[in-house]
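Subject: Sanity check before I submit

Could someone independently write out the structure tokens for this chain? I want to compare against mine line by line before I put it in a report. The sequence has 318 residues.
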Amino acid sequence: MGILDFFSKQKKETLDKGLEKTKESMFSKLSRIVVGKSKVDDSVLDDLEEVLITSDVGVDTTLKVIERIEERVSRDKYVNTEELSKILREEIVDLLTENNSSDNNDGFSIPSDQKPYVIMVVGVNGVGKTTTIGKLANQFKKAGKSVYLGAADTFRAAAVEQLVIWGERVDVPVVKQSMGADPASVAFDTISSAKANNADVAIIDTAGRLHNKVGLMNELSKIKGVMNKIVPGAPHEVLLVLDGSTGQNAFEQAKQFTAATDVTALAITKLDGTAKGGVVIGISDQFKIPVKYIGLGEGIDDLQVFQRKEFVDSLFGH
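---
Independent answer below. Compare away.
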């Protein structure tokens, strides 16, 4: 067994373990709807609709999935209930494929012509934003990249302190200013330092207040404007971090942030310990923004690059 096989096996175990609660919940519900049924009929589909909605896949996405399964059932004339799990998996993978959630086997390679590669991280407080940044920095570092972190969430001392701790842990420099400083100024300093030191990646944390969309929009626009002045085209990625364990609330946050700024990728955290993992499918479908990373635990390596087939297999696999 090569070292890569070992890592992929280890990652698969982390994925399975992280999605355990969602899988158990979905599986027990799916098992109940097919008891005593030999073929997929309207009542099975009605029950399946309820299973998906109660697993936080979301109403609109659930209806799409059911419609696709209905088409297959009518086309194949006779579909037995044993095949239902397989069909469900196939249709969800297809749906995620259409939504531009491309399998990014190496989420830590960056375009060589963009240096530093600038990632602006957005999301409300408490979703695991700073932890995600720390874990990202760790993964980039392991991939041989030099990283700078910018503590532009200057409204919370805790956020700055937490980022500094992660910086020490991962051994990457953290650029910060005093409490309440202008976030755009911190972003300016971070990217200037990253550029001067020929760093590969600069990751900027931002404030997660959602008091009003206009304020948030203005602040994020200002930060982006400053970044673009130093590194034309920056930020290259706007990563929205969502807490998967909040289920439908994560949809609401995605709505607010996508309205306030151009989000280009999603990280969905805290999927371990919750039965709401279906939210990944719904959010990817509704917002047409690729899910790039998923958080499956507290460990420093528990942030994984999202791979749709493996994710769906873990969710519905035996």
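---
OP: Matches mine. For the report I'm noting this point. The mean pLDDT is 87.
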